[in-house]
Specification:
The protein is an alpha/beta fold. It has 2 domains: 164 residues, Rossmann fold, CATH 3.40.50; 49 residues, no CATH class. The chain has 6 helices and 10 strands, in the order E-H-E-H-E-E-H-H-E-H-H-E-E-E-E-E. The strands form 3 sheets. A 5-stranded parallel β-sheet has the order 3-2-1-4-5, sandwiched between helices. A 3-stranded antiparallel β-sheet has the order 8-9-10, with no helix packed on it. A two-stranded antiparallel ribbon has the order 6-7. A hairpin with a 2-residue loop joins strand 9 and strand 10. The protein is globular and about 60 Å long. The structure holds nicotinamide-adenine-dinucleotide (NAD). Nicotinamide-adenine-dinucleotide binds next to helix 1.
Length: 228
């Protein structure tokens, strides 16, 4: 069985580089994606000659297509000195970066972890903050490019499962959580498939109400959740 391929965005940063190192010790294939805004090649230099490690210079604000099983979306300068250098870019990293990584996760059915921050609570009235507390954020404050954009990241991740209205436009509908997107067409002969159709159909199925997927006779997905 092949090892899981794991994408770590911001993989050359403080947390990302340690995460890459740990994932490699567990034997996973690791793709480290970074634009080196605050990260440094020195952080991952010792990993470069490992056969299960790949380094990609890329900016998460731009879409990318990769075949991966899991995504750790850490890309974003974490220190105020750096995230305040270019507030619009910081906003983009957390908004467009989150959207791009959610889109990728959706397309390739990858698990995703979005790095947020306690700064989403702004200048909070309660300590410690519970998940039920919504925060007190100044939208035009000096840290707003970070905390408001991180809040958006949480909104993007949090609302994905809540979208259940189909528009009959594949571009929108494929983003709905709990659906599965299939492109039915001519089978690849090597797989033993028998379908000879020359036409490709994009089909979307809502799996949330009793949907099941079996692989090699084993139930792997049920009611819109992977169960392996
Ligand atoms: N370190 C902390 O204490 C802390 C606390 C709360 C949240 N976080 C979050 O954890 C994540 C990682 O934090 P860190 O401390 O490792 O920060 P870091 O600045 O050391 O690392 C961030 C990495 O992201 C990369 N990056 C920045 N913009 C990018 C872009 N547009 N495209 C691709 N890569 C980009 C940087 O080059 C860097 O390698 C961040 O999302 C941060 O907001 C960190």
């Amino acid at each position: 069985m092949r090892q899981k391929r794991i994408l770590v965005t911001g993989g050359a940063g403080f947390l990302g580089s340690h995460l890459c190192e740990n994932l490699l010790t567990f034997g996973y294939d690791v793709i480290c994606l970074d634009n080196f805004f605050t990260g440094n090649k020195q952080n991952i230099y010792h990993l470069l000659d490992k056969s299960n490690f790949e380094l990609l210079r890329h900016d998460v604000t731009l879409p990318i297509y990769l075949e991966v099983d899991e995504i750790f979306n850490l890309a974003c300068p974490a220190s105020p000195i750096f995230y305040q250098l270019d507030p619009i870019q910081t906003t983009k990293v957390n908004v467009l970066g989150a959207i791009n990584m959610l889109g990728l996760a959706k397309r390739v059915k990858a698990k995703i972890l979005q790095a947020s921050t306690s700064e989403v609570y702004g200048d909070p009235e309660e300590h410690p903050q519970k998940e039920t507390y919504w925060g007190r954020v100044n939208p035009i404050g000096p840290r707003s490019c970070y905390d408001e954009a991180k809040r958006f990241g949480e909104a993007a991740v949090g609302t994905n499962k809540g979208i259940d209205r189909f528009t009959k436009n594949m571009l929108f509908d494929e983003k709905i959580g709990g659906t599965i997107h299939m492109a039915i067409g001519m089978s690849i002969p090597e797989t033993g498939g028998k379908n000879e159709s020359a036409v490709h159909w994009d089909m979307l199925a809502d799996m949330s109400d009793g949907g099941e997927i079996y692989a090699d006779g084993e139930l792997i997905y049920e009611n819109a959740e992977f169960i392996i």
